[in-house]
Design a protein that fits this description.
The complex is a heterodimer of chains A (623) and B (351). In chain A, helix 1 runs parallel beside helix 6 (169-180), helix 7 (186-195) packs antiparallel against helix 8 and helix 11 runs parallel beside helix 12. Chain A folds into 4 domains: 10-229, 3-Layer(aba) Sandwich (Pyruvate-ferredoxin Oxidoreductase, domain 3), CATH 3.40.920.10; 240-426, Thiamin diphosphate (ThDP)-binding fold, Pyr/PP domains (Rossmann fold, 3-Layer(aba) Sandwich), CATH 3.40.50.970; 433-507, no CATH class; 519-619, Rossmann fold (3-Layer(aba) Sandwich), CATH 3.40.50.920. In chain A, 53% of the residues are buried. With 623 residues, chain A is α/β, with parallel strands linked by helices. The mean pLDDT of chain A is 95. Chain B has 351 residues and is an alpha/beta fold. Chain B has 11 helices and 12 strands. Chain B has helices at 36-51, 86-96, 108-114, 116-125, 170-176, 190-202, 224-227, 229-235, 285-292, 319-332, 338-343, and strands at 58-62, 77-80, 101-107, 129-135, 181-186, 207-212, 236-238, 246-247, 253-258, 261-266, 306-313, 348-350. In chain B, helix 1 packs across helix 6 (190-202), helix 3 (108-114) packs across helix 4 and helix 5 (170-176) packs antiparallel against helix 9 (285-292). Chain B is globular. Classes of the chains: A alpha/beta (623), B alpha/beta (351). At the A-B interface, helix 1, strand 9, helix 9, helix 11 and helix 12 of A face strand 1, strand 2, helix 2, helix 4 and helix 10 of B. The structure holds iron/sulfur cluster. Residues 31-32, 35, 37, 66, 136, 140, 215-218 of chain B line the site of iron/sulfur cluster.
Chain lengths: 623, 351
């Protein structure tokens, strides 16, 4: 390594940067990306991440199918998406380069691990020639670095085997990127030490590789520019870094505290929802009971049992699991018991795209059960918003004695962003009152008598004088006795529906997120498309377009003023990661023509495709 | 009243003296006249007052089927749920509320066919609940299709040419699944049934009690070989812990074990002694396993009398208690602090 002091180093300030760490599934790119993002968040940049990995745990090494990526956009302005196009592509092998080159902006940076471009890797990636040498990358700034070799050199003498040493090369990359973007390493160092507490030799190897990467940037003349991204002007407050599924789990614990109800989760492992089960099973000191059931059905049924017993009962799953749970969800609707059902949506139908995102369970949440079985639906719009949506789902469930479906999806569940977390005291209480014990001389207990919300009382076993039977058969109004009477069935059907409708009185009115409240075009979104729509509309408004954005959290019932809000615009555009599910609901409910924009590629919308669609919609001639 | 501070304070409860009548709800019982379910309901109502559990702490959970109407007739808490899922619902309930006395009632279709999977997992988890399997070898509520316990060749509405499915042996299945209390009774022998109900309740763990129940309408007489006075003694083997396996009208037949092979011996023969017989040991899983294989139809080649009573008992930890232990252990390090959780390890301030 050459000693270079005072070399001419150019520092360039950037407003936002998008980096994609790409490599083989076994290359540790998710960890590298996460570490980079956490440090970046702590530094005060706003950011948004997008882990994108194959469904196979160990897809064939070196192949295009095995490429795993972690994309992060960070900046000194507010960031709502992981970025459409990237500024830096870290490619640990030929396949990673080939799979992602189309995302790289012209003139931007490729950091390639030369060792991943040998004959074997080129063959596995179906490259006839070596892109690092054949001149095909002239439009980019290529830094071809022998990352594997340099890591081995740095770790010589540690006594570790080649396999362990090679596993540390992702840390070399991390160190280099830290240097390039001027980030301190102390947080990552602390994390690595903690992660490998039980294996100090591995921790040391990782730290050495990290330092070697940093030094490489510092000491060699390869890089002539270093970048700076100033702190973002976020709303004042204390922030932390959070992932969507983690936020969901925290919200459930918070709801348990705030309701005074013990938390019970019944769940069956499924991608991409399992992290909710993992996270909650750690927090037993909050009295959280987690039950890994034998199947999805049992998970939901166990939650029903726990709800009947007086717990804040939850089940978490993804699409295929929802299919299986629906019968039991119908039972919960009929028993009128509170259960929070978290559906982390993924590409369907059937097994579909387990690790890719989609918003295609909305109509299933709405209509997926036999019979008239309306259920409230809430959707989260960002990783941090998973907290708000889940907490709200819990509140509505117990206040209205009903199952509530909370929709998130793979994109926000695994994505991360800075979160201005609330304090415990800022969160609203929603204390629950169970039905009171009764004496033999009191009037008979009426399990299906309703309050002003239309909700029945929560009468838990163990309460004297409340012995009663409930079931999936139709119940007589108020008494809850079995009833096959047609008129009573119609009344009960109506009462159950009215109860759900009354939730509209307990939720906030819909507001315009950005733009004027009257105008040419309203972009109406829901769920995880928030970031992309927000960014597209912000950019277009800056460019002078007459477009507004509103985003739905409550999908059933809709906020009371939604119709009015929509009628104030000439046109409505609904972008969704499905074939047009909210579009159907809006058309049906408000009888307005809706312009659809749909995508089902397992990926979120890019800002540019949204902008194009919005402009096209604005320019459309009236039919 | 909070949900979780119920009893458990070691104090003796001042219980009013209850009778069977106090456990009968006001609902009119709607089984077919003569159905075996009546007898079982009556015995359960008779036994409950003796158990000393307050009525409000008892929950009956059922699935779908004739027998699953059971909770409606009990003046306790009850859930009549969906087909096959009573076990799963009861699991959640008991895990959430270990203080409750939970009973699961279901038929052979409910617990062994559509809900078979949950039954397996309930048994291995060993929650302290009681399962009453009303086995009538038929689908009654849907008007007479063969069930998972119907014999091969069984002619029913859906099998005009005879059933092809080899029947499930419920108790062998329960042993295989790691059940800790396995017993059999019948609707017609009410004294024995009451005793079995009490034993099932006394066991700490999942008690699996199969009850032969006659469906007069669609499968009348399915168990007559075991329930009718004239043949009963020859076909039934009543198990008692520590006692030799003896049956027959004059208690003149015994069962001996040759290695793992049971054989019937004639006690009237000169060199056959009671002392050589198989002594029933409820805690021996291998022998219990052999007993569950006494499953052939009377008259068949390897016929052995059908055992009734407690086959197997094992003391093993209950899932809900172990779950609670983990929670308490975690809490020893301090109750969860919501602010600390939300704040996490690393934060930064934007001003
Ligand atoms: S159909 Fe059979 S099992 Fe059902 S109630 Fe009638 S007799 Fe009993």
């Amino acid at each position: 390594m050459s000693e270079v002091k005072n070399r001419p180093l150019h520092v360039e300030t950037k407003q936002d940067v998008t980096i994609l760490f790409a490599g083989d599934s076994g290359d540790g790119m998710q960890l590298t990306g996460t570490q980079f993002s956490e440090t970046t968040a702590i530094l005060g940049n706003d950011l948004n991440t997008f882990p994108n990995y194959p469904a196979e745990i160990r897809a064939p090494a070196g192949t295009l199918a095995g490429v795993s990526g972690f994309q992060v956009q960070f900046g000194s302005k507010e960031i709502f998406t992981p970025g459409d196009k990237i500024d830096v592509l870290v490619a640990m092998n030929a396949a990673a380069l080939k799979a992602n080159l189309k995302l790289l902006k012209e003139g931007k940076i490729i950091i390639a691990n030369v060792d991943g471009f040998d004959a074997k890797n080129l063959q596995l990636a179906n490259c006839k020639t070596n892109p690092l040498e054949d001149g095909s990358l002239v439009k980019y700034h290529v830094y071809a670095i022998e990352i594997g070799k340099l890591t081995r050199m740095a770790l010589e003498g540690t006594g570790l085997g080649t396999k362990e040493i090679d596993r540390s090369k992702n840390m070399f990359v991390l160190g280099l990127l830290f240097w390039l973007y001027n980030r301190p390493m102390d947080y990552a160092i602390k994390n690595i030490q903690e992660k490998f507490k039980k294996k100090p030799e591995i921790a040391e190897a990782n730290l050495k590789a990290l330092q070697a990467g940093y030094n490489y940037g510092e000491a060699t003349e390869v890089f002539t520019t270093r970048y700076e991204v100033k702190k973002a002007q976020l709303p004042a407050g204390t922030y932390r870094h959070i992932m969507g599924n983690q936020a969901t789990a925290y919200a459930l614990i918070a709801a348990s505290k705030k309701s005074g109800l013990p938390l019970f989760l019944g769940s069956y492992p499924i991608t991409p929802a399992s992290d909710i089960l993992h996270e909650l099973s750690k927090h037993k000191n909050f009295g959280v009971k987690t039950f890994q059931a034998e199947d999805e059905i049992a998970a939901m049924c166990a939650a029903i049992g726990a709800a009947y017993g007086g717990c804040l009962a939850v089940t978490s799953t993804s699409g295929p699991g929802m299919d299986l749970k629906e019968e039991a969800i119908g039972l919960a609707a009929s028993l009128e018991l509170p259960v929070v059902i978290i559906d982390v949506q993924r590409g369907g139908p059937s097994t579909g795209l387990p690790t890719k995102t989609e918003q295609s369970d909305l109509l299933m949440a709405m209509f997926g059960r036999h019979g008239e079985s309306p259920i409230p639906i809430i959707a989260a719009n960002s990783p941090a918003d998973c907290f708000n949506a889940t907490f709200e789902a819990a509140r509505l469930a117990v206040e209205f004695m009903t199952p509530v479906i909370c929709l998130t999806d793979g994109y926000i569940a695994n994505g991360a962003e800075p979160w201005r977390f609330p304090t415990a005291s800022e969160l609203p209480d929603f204390k629950v009152k169970f039905a009171a014990p009764r004496n033999p001389n009191d009037a008979p207990f009426l399990p299906y008598k309703r309050n002003e919300n239309g909700a029945r009382e929560w009468a838990i076993p163990g309460t004297k004088g409340l012995e009663h039977r409930v079931g999936g058969l139709e119940k007589q109004h108020e008494t809850g006795n079995i009833s096959y009477d047609g008129e009573n069935h119609e009344l009960m059907t109506k009462l159950r529906a009215e109860k759900v409708e009354k939730i509209a009185n307990a939720i906030p009115l819909q507001t315009i997120d950005n733009g004027s409240s009257k105008g040419k075009l309203l972009v109406l979104g829901w769920g995880s498309t928030y970031g992309s729509i927000k960014t597209a509309v912000r950019d277009l408004r800056d460019e002078g377009y007459d477009v507004s954005h509103t985003h739905l959290t409550y999908l059933n019932p809709f906020p009371k003023n939604l119709g009015e809000l929509i009628y104030n615009f000439d046109k409505v555009l609904i972008p969704e990661l499905n074939a047009g599910q909210l579009s159907r609901l809006i058309r049906d409910k408000f009888l307005v023509p809706v312009e659809q924009f749909n995508k089902v590629q397992g990926m979120p919308f890019t800002v540019s495709e949204l902008k194009e669609k919005i402009i096209a919609t604005l320019n459309q001639k009236e039919k | 009243m909070s949900a979780l501070d119920l009893q458990g304070n070691g104090k003796k409860l001042d219980l009013p003296v209850l009778t069977a009548k106090d456990f009968a709800s006001e609902q009119e019982v709607r089984w077919c006249p003569g159905c075996g379910d009546y007898s079982i309901l009556k015995q359960v109502q008779a036994v409950l007052p003796e158990l000393g559990v307050p009525r409000e702490n008892i929950v009956f959970v059922s699935g779908i089927g004739c027998s699953s109407r059971f909770p409606y007739y009990m003046e306790t808490f009850g859930i009549h749920s969906i087909h096959g899922r009573a076990t799963a619902i009861a699991t959640g309930l008991k895990a959430a509320r270990p203080d409750l006395d939970v009973w699961i009632v279901g038929g052979d279709g409910d617990l062994l066919s559509i809900g078979g999977n949950h039954t397996l997992h309930l048994l291995r988890r060993n929650l302290n609940v009681n399962v009453l399997l009303f086995n009538n070898e038929i689908y009654g509520l849907t008007k007479g299709q063969y069930s998972p316990t119907s014999p091969v060749g069984f002619v029913a509405k859906s099998t005009p040419y005879g059933a092809l499915d080899y029947p499930i042996n419920p108790l062998a299945l329960a042993v295989g699944a790691g059940g800790t209390f396995i017993a059999r009774a019948m609707d017609r022998d009410v004294k024995h049934l009451r005793e079995m109900l009490k034993r099932a309740h006394a066991h700490k763990g999942t008690s699996f009690l199969e009850i032969y129940q006659n469906c007069v309408i669609f499968n009348d007489g399915a168990f007559e070989d075991f329930t009718e006075k004239d043949v009963k003694a020859e076909n039934d083997l009543f198990l008692e812990h520590g006692k030799p396996l003896i049956f027959g009208k004059n208690n003149d037949k015994g069962i001996k074990l040759f290695g793992l092979k049971p054989i019937v011996v004639d006690l009237t023969l000169p060199n056959v002694s009671k002392d050589d017989l198989w002594i029933h040991d409820e805690n021996d899983r291998t022998k219990a396993s052999i007993l569950t294989r006494f499953f052939d139809e009377p008259g068949s080649e390897h016929y052995m009398p059908r055992p009734f009573g407690v086959f197997y008992v094992e003391e093993r930890f209950c899932y809900e208690n172990a779950m609670l232990d983990q929670l308490n252990l975690a809490k020893q390090k301090g109750d969860g602090d919501l602010d600390a959780l939300l704040r996490g390890k690393e934060t930064w301030v934007v001003s």
